[in-house]
Design goal:
binds D-ribose
């Protein structure tokens, strides 16, 4: 069983809530970082909340949902130590764990249905990093400085 932080904006909250319940039914410990309810919010706030818990080691993995999964993944990836990946199915979810050592899985409620989301989440949780040739590549990702806007560099 894993400790997982989950977060979403208003466009992903229904999928997030359903997946939080799904994970808890299966015995995982879930920290729900919100949002709760349909009011409009900003996805970076929830991507950051999940990512900070992963980076701090409070949880092992993160789950982020927004309309596409993309914006919230961009926010989560700003936090050093976090490797967030948007996935669309079980294959992409498995491969990003095996090859990229992704520790946050991001889904788009407006792009995939609930069954595909559950399958992707199951595949993500069931896979593990393969190591080997992937180790130096992931190390290169982690060594990149968190990017701000070019004018701030
Ligand atoms: C919200 O309308 C939407 O822009 C957001 O959920 C996400 O899709 C952004 O990437």
């Amino acid at each position: 069983m894993a400790r997982i932080a989950a977060g979403a904006d208003h466009a992903g909250v229904q999928m997030k809530d359903a997946l939080v319940a799904y994970l808890r039914e299966r015995g995982h410990e879930v920290v729900d970082c919100g949002t709760r309810g349909p009011d409009r919010v900003d996805y970076p706030d929830f991507g950051e909340a999940v990512a900070r818990k992963v980076a701090a080691g409070e949880v092992e993995l993160g789950l982020c949902v927004c309309g596409t999964g993309i914006g919230i993944s961009m926010a989560a990836n700003k936090v050093p130590g976090v490797r967030a990946a948007v996935v669309y199915d079980a294959t992409s979810a498995r491969l990003t764990r095996e090859h990229n050592d992704a520790n946050v899985v991001c889904l788009g409620e407006r792009l995939i249905g609930p069954e595909a989301a559950r399958e992707a989440l199951d595949a993500f949780l069931g896979a593990s990093f393969q190591g080997g040739r992937h180790v130096p590549r992931v190390a290169k990702i982690d060594a990149l400085l968190p990017a701000g806007r070019p004018e701030d560099q």
